[in-house]
Amino acid sequence: MDYHTPAIIKKGLIVVFVSLGCTASAIGKNTTPFLPAVAVVPLKPTETQQAAGKYVTQYLLKNHYRKVPVNDSLSQQIFGRYLEHLDGSKSYFLAGEVSALKKFYGNRIDDEFLQGKTTSGFAVYNQFLRRAKEKMRFMKATADTVRFNFSRQESLDLDRKNDPWPADRKELQALWKKELKYQWLNMKYSEGNDKSIRTELSKTFANRLKLLNQQKPDDALQAYMYAVTTSFDPHTGYFSPDEFENFQIDLSRSLEGIGARLQMESEYTVVNEVIPGGPAFRSNLLKKSDKIIGVGQGAGGEIIDVRGWRINDVVKLIRGKKGTSVRLKIYPASQGGRGPAKIVRLLRDKVDLQEQAARKSIIERERHKIGVITIPSFYLDFEGQKLNVNNYNSTTRDVSRILGELGNAGVDAVIVDLRDNGGGSLEEAVNVTGLFIPTGPVVQISNSSGGKMVLRDEDRRVLYNGPIAVLVNRYSASASEIFAAAIQDYGRGVIIGERTFGKGTVQSLVKLNRPFSFLSKQTELGQLKLTVAKFYRISGGSTQHKGVSPDISIPSLIDTAAIGEDTYTSSLPWSTISKTFYRPVSAISQNEIGRLRQSYQTGIIKDRTSREYVRDLGILNRIRKRKTVSLSEAAFKAENEELKRIEKRWMNEDDSLKEKSYYDFMLNRSADIMNDLIGIKKSGQAGSPARRMLSLN
After folding, report:
1. Terminus of the chain with fewer CB atoms < 10 Å: N or C?
2. The PDZ domain covers which part of the protein (predicted)?
């Protein structure tokens, strides 16, 4: 993936059950008493890590797009973000302890930041490690002996972001017991569970306690650096030398595995990107934002619980030889992370560049043929292009060929499907846009000093000038948003689907190296992914934060409340710059879009399948919006069965194009809309601009 237009970038690389390092006496004497102390050898930053901290500070202050004043406000932001990731469930610290930590460290961080120090970060991290160990001991002991009453009417708050920390030990332990009960129910109704729940839970907590005892300074540094860098924006991040090695392997896409990029969010390993052309992509079994909670080898190997594991260790467990299989136990993102868990089996393989290529299909409506061009990513073989290799991989080349084939097939309209397309090559996004417009600007880029660059389509040829639609969803990001925005601004086609992700920023990788010294053998300090610029539409508005809004809204089953740039608390704001000169082609008018929208809404009411889709989506959203989950077995079972029913009905896992055109609600309705548009165009006068737009060059 091109680093100037990455896809949806990770929220963090944190192992939740990690550590923090100061003694209780350093906090203050008049605070709520801490829970019984657990012996912890405080983690301390190494000399290399201290040097890395100084370089990170320098680059953030000098080169980041956002110029953040270093004061107590920034200090409190970093502290708050740090606690949120260490204890987002508010199930480790007591309220008095948090108050004391904030009072002691909350306003020190900015001063330490200017000096490149991580003292407060390691101190808080070590203190958290004490609490995490205590919780795991409690959970294991309780799992070994507890007898739950599953008919009791009680619930667990799954979203404790706005809840207070427990006031005392009694309240804290009551919360822990509810968490354990929830995990018990989830295991009971999860796929692949044929073992004793008590035994498995006890083993899980014992393993997590073991992981806590093996924490290293790098774990503390990564957790703290995440809080620091994401206080500037969510896509800026620090990679230690070891982490960056894994990151490079992901980028090269050469190592045999499942073809997915992972990240850590709280205690979970989360799918950040399903790489087009990889095994996960081809299987259609793994989706963005799925939470991986277990990994098993082969068809019958034990599934190891990986909650709380380091990201590098999870990656090593998932990778393996080509042709071997791995089983992942996941919480599907489609279910709002509520469970039940399911098992997916993937065959390890290399990423096949041919599999990520744009592909075509044809949907027939009445007497009309509608071509569909699915673009999983905006790909480009930079090396092949540089060496002028024949037939190097290029989105523009493939789409050009497909448009010719669709023209020969006599299609009446084209849908460009950019759903789940997280971006890629900026150059390709511009060039593909050029296939549909005569010539002109496509995107503007603004740097931190106010400088502006306009990227243009310089080719006056239009390969296809018939009716087009661009189909997008919440996962359409970066380069996809640039293409959709340009088509919309030129009035070239209709945008269908839901509001896109809203990633309108540009990142650059900076290698942190210090001068060679005989006193220090290690010169490599890691890498910093730094936000350095922002994308703007040719009409002047940013694609950042707000994304691209569709002309006709068709909601997907994605949990849009949890996905998107606007869900990050530190995302850069939407803004505007002066628009650049361009000539709209006005191939579709607002009046025509209004007629299409009205026809679509009428069709939803009349069509049985559409009514069922809207009904089930409403049920799914109501379940997602609930902050609590019932711990009564009857209610828990009923909700899980409803989730499974909806998934089976609308999330068919057969990804063949023929089948997809049958069950894919968004694509089917888009085809209906384009069928209506063809009718509108044909009803115009012969020889009018609208009529001529039906031709293929």
Report:
1. C
2. 248-319
